[in-house]
Amino acid sequence: MVGFVTLILGVVTLVHYYLWRRLIRSTTPPGRVRRVLTWILAGLGVLAPVTLVGSRSGWGHFLAWPGFFWIAVMFYLFVFLLVLEIPRAVAVLALGAARRRADRRIPPAVAARRTTRAEALADRPVPADQQVTADQLVPADQYVSAGQPVPDDQQATGQHVSAGQPVPADQQAAGQSVSVGLPVSAGQQVTGRPVSAEQPTSVEQPVPAAREVRSDGGSKAGPSLMGRRLFIARTAAVAAGVGALTTVGTGIRTALGDPVIESVKVALPRLDPRLSGLRFAVVSDIHLGPLTGVGHTERIVRMINSLRADVVAVVGDLVDGTVAELGPLARPLKSLESRYGAYFVTGNHEYYTANGPQEWIEELRGLGIRPLGNERVEIAHAGAVLDLAGVNDVNGAASGDGPDFERALGGRDRSRSTVLLAHQPVQASEAARYGVDLQLSGHTHGGQMVPFNLVIPLQQPVVSGLGEVDGTQVYVTRGAGFWGPPVRVGAPPEITLLELRN
């Protein structure tokens, strides 16, 4: 448990840091908005592991909906942003290249003149007779503004008096006007006529850096490179947000909707011809839990009964809680109908419950479902016999209740065909040693949310559908429920009607 919590905390922390850099740091300036968004994301980061741990412990069920919803959104934000990293990088590089090309198109004379002007303005000393000492400064409300009188001794000196420049108190005069940052030439009559800002200046104004110079020496206004980078970052963030929310919304609708009925025919070379046509209703990973109601179970039972199967196989991961918590949700299973009965094997989640799997085994017996805990039964049909066996999930080994293939399959008549119920596809390797013809499994959910289906083959030999392991055919159902986020993307829930053929 400690290892699981540590892993979850590490992954969640890294993912949220990446989301912060791409969704907040890259799209907002420093300030209050960034701080608020950072705290919100930090809170969601805490919610994710608390939900995962709490939902398995029972005390965090009230966090299930908001917590698992955010986990799904977080995951797909991460996926979409990763996918957008390449076009984002290409766009930034293209902007930099365009900026460099624009700079190279500036005529050398224009570029030199711009540099000279900037240096001249930066290095020009202030004449001694224009320097103002601290005792000559006037309060800010007496600063000279455009149209305000000019001191007499500055009327013909050519000196600049800029708007907002402080003028010594003993030099303030009436009846004369100030030009905005422009010199007043000698002999110019300023009394009664203000000097307008349109008059030419004695020093050419530098070309603003935010303006781009065309190849013909002209200029055009354009956003800065940093502004374009911000635009790209925000565009990527919006695209990822829309993509994630759309994907999760569609996935919720799929997960909470009716399972798909998959019809599959499986040919078994050693099958007695009299058993050809025997039909199994295969269901797995129902996952009764805090996000499902009794309607979820009733719908599955109704759909299974409509198939009129000969055998019902419930292949593990039925529940995510104790009998006290989820017993009422399981009661509709008593209404399952089939010719030769309903059978159950444990999945890994039965071992995660607070009281272990045994209480559920007894509960299911009371509901008319027979558990196959490392044992087998004979299905007699049309004068022939099929061996139906079941083994416990591999997670039971930690508590001394793991799979026992020898007990379930040893000493049987090898001339008979055998169907094995085993929750995880990986158990097929051991089943093949005992000559099992067909193994029915679940566990994978078909990946549940793309792209997890690409990762599952690292652990399981079959993700979904019909496959083969060491000569044993393996059918893996995607399951009728969901675990964690109530989301299914690219792997709709299913119930399988599987028909044996000779």
From TrEMBL:
InterPro entries the UniProt entry points to: Calcineurin-like_PHP, Metallo-depent_PP-like, Metallophosphoesterase_sf
Domain Calcineurin-like phosphoesterase: from-to ranges: 278-446
Membrane-spanning segments: 6-24, 36-55, 67-95
Pfam families listed in its UniProt record: Metallophos
Single GO MF annotation: UDP-2,3-diacylglucosamine hydrolase activity
Protein origin, superkingdom: Bacteria
Record flagged with keyword Membrane: yes
GO biological process terms, semicolon-separated: lipid A biosynthetic process
Record-linked Gene3D superfamilies: 3.60.21.10
Region (Disordered) residue spans: 145-220
Keywords carried by this UniProt record: Hydrolase, Membrane, Metal-binding, Transmembrane, Transmembrane helix
UniProt KW Repeat keyword: no
GO cellular component: membrane
Cofactors: a divalent metal cation
Family to which the UniProt record says this protein belongs: Belongs to the metallophosphoesterase superfamily.
Record-given protein name: Calcineurin-like phosphoesterase domain-containing protein
Organism field: Streptosporangium subroseum
Taxonomic lineage of the native organism: Bacteria, Bacillati, Actinomycetota, Actinomycetes, Streptosporangiales
